[in-house]
Task: structure prediction
Amino acid sequence: MSTTFTLDTSTSRANPTPAPMRRLTVPRIRARKVDGVTEEPIVVLTAYTARQAQLLDAHCDLLLVGDSLGQVIYGLPSSVPVTLEMMAAHGAAVVRGSYHSAVIVDMPFGSYEQSPAQAFASASRLMKESGCAGVKLEGGAAMAETVEFLVSRGIPVMGHVGLTPQAVNVLGGYGPRGRSEAEASKILSDAQALCRAGAFAIVVEGVIEPIAIAVTRAVACPTIGIGASAQCDGQVLVTDDMLGMFERVPRFVKRYGAIAEDISAAAAQYAAEVRSRAFPGPDQTYQPE
Result:
């Protein structure tokens, strides 16, 4: 028995509760792909808060605490300004709010590129402070040495190739990757290098579909597609995009909800009732006994 956290939805407080740990583990996720085939695709969504994690947990295999929280939560123009402190805090919240899914935390820009030693210091901090199961970092062959360094020291690593948002200033935007033969070849070789280095899975983002399929067939570890192909071994989306929290819908996103409209409508009704003094009513006030 280990102490984990359940979220008391009546109070929105996390309360320690003894419970057996039954989370999916990184080895179990890696083992989904056998002889190049993943019979049961891996379901991944982003999560940034305890309550969001609780709602998503039962439906996912992995919860990714993405550095996309820079844009989604903090209104930043890109993920580049995100800090290690932000990732650790949100990672801990997601771990507290979940029970079933393995939680993976993005390593933010500048926290791992300098050297394997820097990457280990950052990754070990994230794992200690959040309780996550592993970390994700961007980059291909150039990061293979770092991936091997981390994995050999007990830190599971998810790779990320293709469109790498932290490199937006070099890439010049968020357009699809792999249209040229040279770029397609690099994406493929990058994925192979990461897999050989010990990455347990690789996010393949924003690449043309034939390249995503080729990468999936070429590596032994699972691929997680986003703007890639249904033939990848799993899929990930930014939850807030999928739920319709933003008006802009990227090409690779399917809207499964219209949460922004629901929130706006509820706020409008609340405002109207406050201004008309219809709220609070007898059911929301305390009267003398």
